Request: fold
Amino acid sequence: MAKITAKGIIIWVIIVIIYISSFVFLSVYEFQDWKYGSFIESLIAVFQGAGVIAIITAVILLFQSQLEAQKEKGQKVFNEKISLYKEAIEVVENIFKDNRIESGELQRLEFIILKLQLISSDSTIRKFVEFYQKIVDVADIDLIQENNFTKSADLKRAFSEFIGKCRVELQLSENELDKSIFQQIQETVENSDKKKWQKSNYKDWDNYEEFLKEETNVSTPTINLIKKIHDDIINEYSIPQKATVNYTKTMISFLVHNAPSSRKRFLMITSFSANKFALSPSKDKNEVAPDGTTTVASWTDSYSIEIKGSTDYNDKAKHLIEKSYEYIMNIKK
Reply:
């Protein structure tokens, strides 16, 4: 609504004074003794009638402008909510797409919480915070691994509850999603996660080697080099006594059993192609990656060493793997 200026106030005061003066004039002046009295009297009456209409119109316009301002404000807030909820869905979608929770994604979720505080209801914020707490609990753990697909389903359940609150807040529904429908969705998601795990995880190297040969274009020399590194890691870091290895379609992950924090993975073998792949040791998100390595913006807690041949798997690469293992073993809770 537009602000009332001093000039506008003065104009309205003058109008009111003239209007009141007309009433006073009509009440004290005797028009019968004047030749044009009837004309003047009718003219003043018309003026007063027009004044009443003007005042009523002004009140209506003022009220209408307030309603329009509230409507416009409500529409802007609605649009902002839609954009924010879409952003939250996109971040969570990326988490489940690559089955990783990176520090960059955690930071985006933290800022989403701040944005929610600006425009969302307490109940909606509370549900998102509950989801975020679950995310933090499993941060840096591959979500679809043996014994971990239940965590994935739990996260999806928590996020679905948040979406239910969004539906109510956006007035798309008076109530949250019916419990029977919600339960059906959760059961479907959990079954889907189990099937994904069964199809995308492999029991051991022999099983994984078969996958590389039959379902990828990775060359035989490259597979042999991957196996050599794989075997070296198993021997060097006492797998399965002290560490474990997980095989998925996109990577081989090596994780420490007794790491002091939730971060347990110290190495990934990933980015497979015909004649090369990458070793990805872990690091602190604030640590600068070593020279000759590359980083991905969304994976600030690791870096990549490109391996094109046996010469790339040298003492420097082995030292960086060892350094990554020591880092994981010394992270404070």
About this structure: The chain has a mean pLDDT of 79. The first helix runs from residue 6 to 28. Strands lie at 201-202, 243-248, 251-256, 265-270, 277-281, 294-296, 299-307.
